[in-house]
Write a structure and sequence with these properties.
- The protein has one helix at about 110; strands at about 5, 35-40, 45-50, 80, 90-95.
- About 5% of the residues lie in helices and about 15% in strands.
- Among the domains are: about 35-75, no CATH class; about 75-115, no CATH class.
- A hairpin with a 5-residue loop joins strand 2 (about 35-40) and strand 3 (about 45-50).
- Strands 1-3-2 form a 3-stranded antiparallel beta sheet, with no helix packed on it.
- With about 120 residues, it is mainly beta.
Length: about 120
């Protein structure tokens, strides 16, 4: 799972010794254009814009995949819409997880309703 990046303290400075790099902590780098970053439901956290609506829970609270923070298109053809039990996914799971004898949806629809990959 990709990490989220806290923005730092109220003064806009990052924590001492931290860097705003994948896997690290720190404020939004000044060199990044605003369209390259997206804020999560927790306003102190951000992700790269291309991580929005990718089916993966990048923010940790699904705010990058679900309303009201973002409006994502419905699940694509390789995905199954269901309330996921897997923390990595939010409202859709990859169809490759369907009918694998493991519950990935709260309602078990991945095992009984999903047509599979």
């Amino acid at each position: 799972m990709n990490k989220i990046f806290p923005q730092g303290d109220a003064n806009g400075s990052a924590a001492a010794g931290s860097k705003a790099l994948p896997g690290g902590e720190g404020g939004v780098p000044q060199s990044l254009s605003g369209f390259l970053v997206a804020h999560c439901g927790d306003p102190a956290s951000w992700i790269y814009s291309d991580q929005m609506c990718d089916g993966i829970n990048n923010c940790g609270d699904c705010s990058d995949e679900l309303s009201p923070v973002t409006t994502c298109p419905p699940c694509g053809p390789g995905w199954w819409r269901c309330p996921s039990t897997v923390f990595r996914y939010c409202s859709c799971i990859p169809r490759s997880l369907c009918r694998d004898h493991v519950q990935h949806c709260f309602d078990w629809s991945d095992e009984y309703s999903c047509p599979g990959p």
